[in-house]
Amino acid sequence: MINKIYIEYLLLKDDNESFQQVLSIIHPKLLSFAQGIVKDKSKSQDAVQESMMAITKGYSKLKDYRKFHLWIYQVTRNKCLDMIRKNHKYKNDCDLTSLEEMRAQKNDVDLQLDMMYLIKQLPHKQKNVIQLFYYDGFNIREIADILKTPEGSIKSLLFDARENLRQQIGE
After folding, report:
1. DSSP string for residues in the chain
2. I need a labelling partner for 88 at 20 to 30 A (CA). Which of 3, 37, 78, 143 fits?
3. What is the rounded CA–CA span in Å between residue 43 and residue 83?
4. Fold of the 98-171 domain
5. pLDDT value of residue 151
6. For 121-138, what is each residue's pLDDT tens digit?
7. Does the model's pTM come out above 0.85?
8. Which CATH number does 1-89 carry?
9. Where are the domains of the chain?
């Protein structure tokens, strides 16, 4: 996994080739983040494409490259919310395999799939916080900045998400 420091190093090189490399690194992360918000693969790809254009246009104005990660997630979040607002027929449905089917074919990989399935079943805000905290490595303060939510609310969402997962696993 390429870490934040390496991305900041590439940004400090301040050349087009390095910036293109940064875009290729962050694209899958932003796509995963957007899919958690929009729930539709093609719409999330559109939102990420718009985000990438905004990031390309605006990154030169960024004064502190250490805030790059927070900024790109905020840009992507805003583009996703814009996409949702534009599409008044938006549905908050997920097309997922049922947990019962996955448990029928249990092995090590299935255990991971079960966890991923359980995470996808969490309420939208809890799922985003879990993804940003555990998978993307952001701390509470950074998540609060990305989601424009108070730190206390992020802590509560994280606690509630963990409790929901514990209850689902215990069933």
Report:
1. ---HHHHHHHHHH-SHHHHHHHHHHHHHHHHHHHHHHH--HHHHHHHHHHHHHHHHHHGGG-S-GGGHHHHHHHHHHHHHHHHHHH-TT---------HHHHHHT-SHHHHHHHHHHHHHHS-HHHHHHHIIIIIS---HHHHHHHHT--HHHHHHHHHHHHHHHHHHHH-
2. 143
3. 7
4. Arc Repressor Mutant, subunit A (1.10.10)
5. 92
6. 888 888 888 888 887 778
7. no
8. 1.10.1740.10
9. 1-89, 98-171
